[in-house]
């Protein structure tokens, strides 16, 4: 059985990420997730440029974030993205942890589907290029 | 039976909301939701200032967004927030619709819990002030 | 003498605009300016869509913001954009005022130049379409 | 003569930084600057936490950005912040360069002044703590 790919990036919480309560505003986690997702997709050579060249875009159709513990200004994080499903849609799971203690701070997922560009026609099965990039097909 | 409150705000998609695909970047929906949530909470006289004065903050502990149809630059929207649960946590549901056609573009929810300020101690039952603001208690 | 166009939009400061000091984070003023600039350009029928159809993009090449007084959560604003130069470049001036008191809170400018799309070739003179849209040429 | 401190951080342009033209939206440069400024201030042990502990906040009162060349999705950058003035105000200059070629992509500055917390009373001379942190006073 082939193991699905994952990636991890380090991040430091910036002043502009934090709200009047002094913690990261909840909407910014989508940016943190995207840093890790982008590293994951670059790792299988299927980043935004390769997607476009393949004739597809992969819009996010579902986002879920579970906030476990408030994240503070200056805190150092590790954001992990792991591919969970790929055959019909691209489901990626995320974990945010404190870089020092390893404590879990948040988790979540995104779901993306392939659409043709420029027609934006949704594909019910992931195009062959994805299995190829994952090393699961020739 | 008392009907729970809701609120609706109009929004126009700005250039800075849109990504290289020419549509609203998925992470920005959390800002759109917050516009409507803020109108909802102001409507029951329990906005951020009143929350702080009441000794509580209400951090978001769960966010879900379901993207139904891509939203384009310049599109005019109506964002609706409706209170769904309040006894143990504040659950608010959202709908984004095209302002002209009424077509549904996205839906989602946020869940917030009360924490004491400045101790950040989580409350398992919503503090009495919330029922009072909702007109459900003296 | 023809008077150059201007536009004004109302805005209410949102929670996600504010930083740990409880005031609008300085980088977000560029979004506030863009709301007013977008209204100004729509007003002369030369918004982003019309720009693209005309074969040009107008990237911002210079931004200046002078912060006069801190802007607080929930504060209601009026943002004014006024065209100041157009022959060789598009220079727009901005003023942010408190909607109630009229007190000036910030001022600034952006400078944009026309570039051909998709070549991104910079134009040293604004293309004829701009004077036409401004009603200064047939 | 003592040399004033500077700092440099690496950054990779993310999808959420880019606009419908496929380049970094001009307002996001303020975030890039802040990454480098934060590294600079941490380097002299006068980051946001130390500022607050010293009884002062340092709001930005002036921002200027000059955009030299459009920055593209995925591009790797070096952002440099260098202290330029400190006696009456904190003036920091910035340079954004392509990490590979060294080509200059943007420059700019921010000006900050000390205000007492929580009174927000502006100081016309930088408080002694700054000279101390800079190693220019005992």
Based on the structure given, which CATH architecture of chain A is correct?
Roll
Count of alpha and pi helical runs of chain A: 3
- Oligomeric composition of the shown chains: homotetramer
Query: Order of SSEs of chain A, N→C?
Result: EHHEEEEEEH
**How many separate domains make up the residues of chain A?**
1
CATH superfamily of chain A: Hotdog Thioesterase
Beta-strand percent range of chain A: 25-35%
In total, the number of strands of chain A is: 7
Distance between the termini of chain A: 16 Å
> What class, by secondary structure content of chain A?
alpha+beta
From the alpha carbons, calculate the radius of gyration of chain A and give it in angstroms: 16 Å
**Overall helicity of chain A:** 10-25%
The parts of chain A where pLDDT drops under 50 for at least 5 residues are none
In short:
The first copy, chain A, has 138 residues and is of the alpha+beta class. Chain A is 20% helix and 34% strand.
